[in-house]
Design goal:
The chain is mostly helical. It has 16 helices and no strands.
Length: 399
């Protein structure tokens, strides 16, 4: 008789629980389960589970046929193999390994499921006559039920199956990751890049205003101090800061706005170049699987957040300095380096997730990309320095 809890589990919102229920019905050896499996095959919202229910019906029919054949053979006087005496502890271990195998099979890990079946058979050799065990073994090994024992008993065949299953699992994961990555297109990434550019523009535009206000207050604060009190200040805002502050105050808003927009545009272009380097290194050098838009969808929001954090942190440090706590403001900036370092590690994790090769390889991609871009960026500077040096030498020679 079918457990009502299993039937109820078929309606669960959790696809894994529904998958488990399908597996239990498939191995129930009760033809009454067919109608429930048919209902799943017709109506379940998950296409994979609908296909699994179809296979489960076929497996159930074969399982019942095998049971009938065994019963007929027993009735005809064929002697079954003599059972082995197994203590309760080993019997329980065998049941546990069998259930683990079923769970692993449902999760799609046939290699580990096959290993659990071998352990179950070692603990209780009588399972070779158990239809439930043989049914699971046939599903796991993807062979007819009557051939499952031969595969489990043959070390070479079993090793080949486990090796192929592991490769198949890796390929399946890569395929699923590739399908997930291809869902993200340039249209959604363009929105992320726009938000990043907007944050850069806003912080760039606000920075001179915040700077002039805070430096003005700092200068005003120190102007009111006596000579002895001023000498005790760790940082003194002299005429240089005052001249700079006056110059910034005299610059029009339009200039700051244009500068902010230009910097935002350059930041977006720079981000695309940087992402291109990351993508080439991740896919060509480190054999990662992914697309550039998918990687950008994970990296760009990270940089948008980091830009905001740095800007707020800078405002806090400047505010402390402007109110006389210059030393505390300077100390406040020190942890920012650790924060940025930690965020870079998290960025490596995002890159590893984008290309399905883990945080370590993601950090490696990040390091190599920074080195490559640093070297490329240094080339124009070195060329310019050589040209200037040559011009100076030529000038000295002519003199």
């Amino acid at each position: 008789m079918i457990d009502p809890k299993v039937i109820k589990q078929l309606k669960s919102k959790d696809a894994n629980k529904r998958r488990q229920a399908i597996g239990m019905l498939a191995d129930s050896r009760d033809m009454a389960a067919l109608k429930h499996l048919e209902d799943v095959a017709q109506n379940d919202s998950d296409e994979k589970l609908r296909k699994l229910a179809v296979r489960a019906q076929d497996h159930l029919r074969k399982q019942v046929d095998k049971s009938r054949q065994r019963a007929n053979a027993a009735a005809a006087g064929e002697a079954p193999s003599r059972p082995v005496i197994v203590n309760e502890k080993d019997s329980q271990r065998a049941r546990s390994f069998t259930e683990e195998a079923l769970s692993l099979y449902i999760q799609g890990d046939n290699a580990k499921a096959a290993q659990r079946l071998v352990k179950a058979l070692e603990a209780n050799p009588n399972l070779k006559n158990d239809n439930y065990f043989l049914g699971i073994a046939g599903n796991v090994l993807e062979v007819p039920q009557e051939h499952a024992l031969a595969v489990l008993a043959d070390g070479s065949k079993r090793a080949d199956f486990i090796s192929q299953s592991k490769r198949g699992k890796v390929e399946k994961r890569k395929k699923e990751h590739r399908e997930t990555a291809e869902v993200i297109g340039w249209s959604s990434v363009s929105f992320d890049l726009g938000i990043y550019g907007l944050i850069v523009a806003v912080t760039t535009f606000l920075m001179p205003f915040v700077f002039t206000q805070l430096i003005g207050r700092a200068i005003e604060y120190q102007t009111g101090l006596t000579a002895e009190e001023l000498a005790q200040e760790s940082v003194q805002f002299g005429s240089t800061f005052s001249d700079l502050n006056q110059w910034l105050s005299g610059v029009g808003i339009v200039v700051f706005l244009v500068a902010a927009l230009v910097l935002a545009l350059l930041s977006i272009v720079g981000m695309l170049i940087y992402a291109g380097a990351l993508h080439l290194i991740a896919t060509k050098l480190l054999r990662g699987v992914g697309t550039m838009p998918f990687m950008l969808s994970k990296v760009v929001p990270f940089y948008s957040t980091l830009t905001g954090i740095i800007f707020i942190w800078w405002i806090i440090a400047m505010t402390l300095s402007a109110t006389g706590a210059v030393l505390i403001g300077a100390i406040c900036m020190l942890p920012l380096g650790l924060v940025v370092l930690y965020q870079m590690f998290r960025l490596g994790g995002r890159i590893g997730e984008a290309y399905d090769f883990g945080t370590g390889m993601g950090c490696m991609t990040l390091i190599v990309a920074n080195i490559v871009i640093g070297l490329i960026s240094a080339i124009p500077g070195l060329i310019a320095q050589n040209l200037i040096a040559q011009a100076i030498l030529n000038s000295l020679g002519a003199a």
